TrEMBL record:
Chain segments annotated as transmembrane: 12-34, 40-61, 82-103, 109-126, 138-156, 162-180, 192-211, 217-234, 246-266, 272-292
Matches recorded under Pfam families: UbiA (PF01040)
Protein's UniProt keywords contain Transmembrane: yes
Compartments it resides in: Membrane
UniProt superkingdom: Bacteria
Protein name per the record: UbiA-like protein EboC
Topology of this chain in the membrane: Multi-pass membrane protein
InterPro entries from the UniProt entry: Prenyltransferase_related, UbiA_prenyltransferase, UbiA_sf
Keywords: Cell membrane, Membrane, Transmembrane, Transmembrane helix
Keyword Transmembrane (UniProt): yes
Amino acid sequence: MGKLVAYLRIMRPANIVTSVADILAGIAISGVLISSVTMPWFTIVCLCLSTACLYGGGIVFNDVFDAGLDKIERPERAIPSGVISLTNATILGTLLLVSGIALASVTSLTSGLLAFGVSCFALLYNKVGKHHPFFGPLSMGICRGLNLLLGLSIVPEMLHQHYFLAIIPVIYIFSITMTSRGEVHGGNTKNLYIAAGLYAIVIGAIAWFTFVNERLLWSLLFLLPFGWMIFKPLSKAIKNPIGKNIGGAVKAGVISLILMDAAWAVTFDVLVLAFIIAALLPLSLWLSKLFAVT
């Protein structure tokens, strides 16, 4: 049982729930739930399982590539503590990424290519990007942008119409990743203020899309708590930029992605799915109490 918990810990289950929310948001944007006579359950399940594998594999490789550094900064983690060997972690991460690509490919070649892109950028970030102040956050943001498009690829033709929406999660994750650099040793307020500005841009952009689609009032059900969830811990970190406060801001930023995805579903007139996505928030919060988010 201890081994199983350790393997779950390095996969960050609370984070995986947020990646599933991205897929559901992409599916909402595609319009397939409105236009289809029958619900494409099999495809939806495949895409959700695909993103779970991709995110889990990417996170596992994060710990694999950080194994040496974690011996110094986070020796309690599964790999440096010896609970899971570096070899077994590498095998697990590889199996998860390959499974994610395979599951997406069942949907379409386009979905498979997007899943492959997520894997490549995740590995790029883990191996090289995380050490660069700009390209690290950018590569991680691209992973989330591609993840939204992975959900949208349930109707490949719709990618040509809505591909530009991926820039919103790219900006958002860029700001979270940039903020997380001070999680261990503390950070400076400059990055935190930049993150606050980027958060505001993200909320403003989604609000504009909902206004154009005449769904602004409904979207506020999710955008207001979304703003509260991300700005409250961020303001605390700005006042006192110690590692603990920054870690709290990063954790809130990751989990609150669920509310952002719910707002996307409202924007494209899939209100029921928006509430289903929002219902993932308690699950992610519960898992975050059992397993680390960062």
